[in-house]
Specification:
By secondary structure, this protein is α/β, with parallel strands linked by helices. It has two domains: 48-307, UDP-N-acetylmuramoyl-L-alanine:D-glutamate ligase (3-Layer(aba) Sandwich), CATH 3.40.1190.20; 325-538, TIM Barrel (Alpha-Beta Barrel). It is 37% helix and 17% strand. Strand 11 (360-363), helix 11 (370-387) and strand 12 (391-394) form a beta-alpha-beta unit. The termini are far apart. 49% of the residues are buried. The model is unreliable at 1-38 and 316-321 (pLDDT under 50). The structure holds the ligand Cc1ncc(COP(=O)(O)OP(=O)(O)O)c(N)n1 and 4-methyl-5-hydroxyethylthiazole phosphate (TZP). 4-methyl-5-hydroxyethylthiazole phosphate binds next to helix 17.
């Protein structure tokens, strides 16, 4: 790396051994800064990050990335929008600057009312905006300032006026706790020096440090020819190389914003700077890894999923991301007594039903001992997962959680779908038995994914179960905002007539005895599937 041609403004640093941000900020307000008639900003119940950045219409970077990253890491995120971009996976199609006076207004609204722990900056597209921000920070000191010097989007589009460069360095960096340039931004900040190696990154970090921030993180994610993503962290004394896996993916749009806002979130929670950076790097790497195979948009660089943890245990059950209503088509419900009668294990019965064409499985094992049931349920989860068929558990949320099933089916006398949703989280499938429009309405309000409606015909499987007939089924389907599966006395002789009703949200039939109270589960399931398919084609 050639030496930096620009002379940094030297500024005395506070001791870099300060390890947390609970102390007041260095930039104390002048005695005149806060008008005495203004009520002081009220303490927040959560760690609070204010992001001052641009909006990304595609939702991958900018304000949108910041809000999601903070939410994922447990911090509240307020926002001051500096610019509105028209942007997608192909690049930036337009930038509309928010008038400076209105940026001042947004800053004042948030900072005067709610106590902010950390300010994180992204796109600051004009000299005036940088100045307004610095003034606001002097007036309303915060615990830490994280500066992501966004100058060029990853697609190569310019996101700031070149004249902001000196302004950035001279004014904002001097107030910053950490500055997080990538190699391109570091090069730009240092007058175009070229950065090819980790040693160049160290030199760049040292040069940027001289502009005034307490810490510098030069990010090497864009450095070519490395199997690792190496970032250089510098605290004015020591260089630390932070090594991560380079995730092979096109879905990297917004990584810089996400990293900086994740650092801000961790600082707001009280982390030391190095810990915050490590957590943030780890978070970005995990999010990229979870999203690496997604195809989003038509352009070369897609966004990634900041909320991937909501889809992982313990918040999800299984791999189901979004409930596919078509899976209700041939819904098979097991029965331990029937399996015993025919000498079938639950596992074999489930395997055979799937082989015959079942599209979703429910384990309804009313007599099973919990420990034995869990063992069988775990085996069935594996069987279903390998076939891509969702597996639900009847009534037993505990078993569903313990075996990582895809969801739970509950009846009107079981715990409510709302409570089940709270226990299982958002990624799970919840079904509710409904016999009336009011129950269907309640299931929708409670966050269920589908309803089971019946008995359509008389059944021996469930004692004292009223028969609704086609009229009752139609009434409930018509009232239901959720997809419906019909249940009760359905077999190969009447299943076709149920599907031929042609009710749009009636997605399939659920069957117990016609499949499991039989010697050959696979043959019966296959026959039923072909009858349903023909009926569907005839509607
Ligand atoms: C798909 C489907 N629909 C309805 C039921 C009946 O559930 P529930 O009312 O909880 O009665 P029991 O199954 O517990 O007897 C179901 N299991 N599946
Ligand atoms: C569990 C249940 N809920 C309403 S009817 C019924 C039993 C369905 O069993 P079958 O398919 O053997 O009639």
């Amino acid at each position: 790396m050639s030496s930096a041609p620009l002379q940094p403004i030297l500024r005395p640093h506070p001791p870099s051994s300060i390890s947390s941000f609970s102390s007041p900020r260095r930039t104390q307000p002048s005695p005149r800064a806060r008008p005495c008639r203004l009520a002081a900003a009220r303490e927040m119940p959560w760690p609070h990050v204010l992001t001052v950045a641009g909006s990304d219409s595609g939702g991958g970077a900018g304000i949108q990335a910041d809000v999601k990253a903070c939410a994922a890491l447990g911090a509240y995120c307020s926002s001051v929008i500096t610019a509105v971009t028209a942007q997608n996976t192909a690049g930036v199609q337009g930038v509309h600057l928010v008038p400076e006076g209105f940026i001042r207004k947004q800053l004042n609204s948030v900072l005067s009312d709610m106590s902010v722990d950390v300010v994180k900056t992204g796109m600051l597209p004009s000299v005036g905006i940088v100045q307004i921000l610095c003034e606001s920070l002097r007036k309303f000191p915060v615990k830490a300032l994280v500066v992501d010097p966004v100058m060029v989007s990853t697609s190569g589009d310019s996101l700031s006026d070149p004249s902001t460069l000196t302004n950035y360095r001279d004014e904002l960096f001097a107030m910053a706790d950490i500055v997080t340039p990538n190699v391109k931004e570091a090069s730009k900040l240092l007058g175009g020096v070229s950065l090819h190696t980790v040693s160049d990154m160290r030199d760049a970090a040292a040069s940027i440090y001289k502009f005034g921030p307490r810490y510098v993180l030069v990010k090497g994610g864009d450095m070519p020819d490395s199997s690792e993503a190496i970032d250089v962290f510098y605290d004015g004394k020591e260089f630390i190389e932070l090594r991560g896996h380079r995730i092979k993916t096109c879905n990297t749009h917004g990584t810089g914003c996400t990293l900086a806002s994740s650092i801000a979130a961790e600082l707001a929670k009280g982390s030391t700077m190095l810990h915050a950076v490590r957590v943030a790097k780890n978070f970005v790497e995990s999010a990229l890894d979870h999203s690496k195979d997604l195809t989003i948009g038509n352009g070369p660089q897609g966004p990634f999923d900041h909320l991937f943890r909501l889809k992982c245990p313990p918040y999800n059950i299984g791999s189901q991301q979004r409930f596919n209503q078509d899976s209700l088509f041939l819904y098979v419900v097991t029965d331990s007594r029937m399996n015993k009668r025919w000498g079938h294990s639950i596992e074999d019965a489930v395997k055979d039903a799937i082989e015959g064409g079942a599209t979703i499985v429910q384990l309804r094992e009313k007599d099973a001992e919990s420990r034995e049931f869990l063992k069988a349920a775990k085996a069935c989860v594996e069987i279903c997962k390998s076939s891509g068929v969702p597996l639900l558990i009847n009534d037993r949320v505990d078993i569903a959680l313990a075996c990582n099933a895809d969801g739970v089916h509950v009846g009107q006398s079981d715990i409510s779908a709302r409570e089940v949703r709270e226990l299982l989280g958002p990624g799970k499938i919840i079904g509710v038995s409904c016999k009336t429009p009011a129950q269907a309405e309640q299931a929708w309000n409670d966050g269920a994914d589908y309803i089971g409606c019946g008995g359509v015909f008389p059944t021996m499987t469930k004692a004292n179960n009223p028969t609704l007939g086609f009229e009752g089924l139609k009434t409930v389907c018509l009232a239901s905002k959720l997809p419906v599966v019909a249940i009760g006395g359905i077999n190969t002789t009447n299943a076709g007539s149920v599907m031929e009703l042609g009710i749009p949200n009636l997605k399939g039939v659920a069957v117990v005895s016609a499949l499991f109270d039989r010697e050959c589960v696979m043959t019966e399931t296959r026959n039923l599937r072909s009858i349903l398919t023909s009926a569907l084609c005839s509607v």
